[in-house]
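Folding Task

Wanted — backbone structure
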Amino acid sequence: MQVQRIHHVAYRCHDAKQTVQWYEKMLNMRFMLAIAEDLVPSTREPDPYMHVFLDAGGGNVLAFFELPTKPAMGRDPNTPPWVQHIAFRVKDRDTLLQYRAHLEAEGVKVLGVTDHGAFHSIYFFDPNGHRLELACPDPDEQAMLERMDAVKWDMLNDWARTKKAPHHADFFHRREFTKAASE
C-alpha cells in the first residue's frame, strides 16, 4: 500500500470568484472546475458551498471552499503566519524573479528571495490571507538534499529529545544567514 500523490488540497476562501481570478492572474493557474451543493456529500449537513479547483501544475490541484453561511474565517492565533503556507515549485531562478516582478507590479507585497540552501523562495499572501511560497531549485540542490538526507534521523531524534534546534545541518541556511549578517 502506498499513496500515489496528493489528489488536491483544499482551503477556505472569502470569495470563490475573486480567488479564482487572483490565482489565474497572479500565478497563471487554470480554473479547472466548480462544484456547488446545498448539502455536504460526506456528512449530509445542510451547508451551501462553492468548491473551486485550480491546476497547480504537474497533476497538483489547489482547491478552495466558499462558505457563505459560516462565520468569517480566521487564523489560529497561536500559529505564526509564516508557518502555514502553500509552496509551489517553479523552474529556475529566472522564473522566480519574473514572478516576483509580476506580483510586485500587481501590488502584491513580496518577501525574498530567501536562500534555503537547496532552493530559493519568495513569499506573499493571497487575498484570503493564505501565505504562499514560490521556490526554485539551487544549482547544488541534489548535493544539498543528499547531505540533508544523511542527517535527517539524527536531527529528528535530537529534536524529539531536547526540543532545541540541532546543528547537524547548519550548512543548509548558512548563505542566507551570512548574507543577512552582512546587510
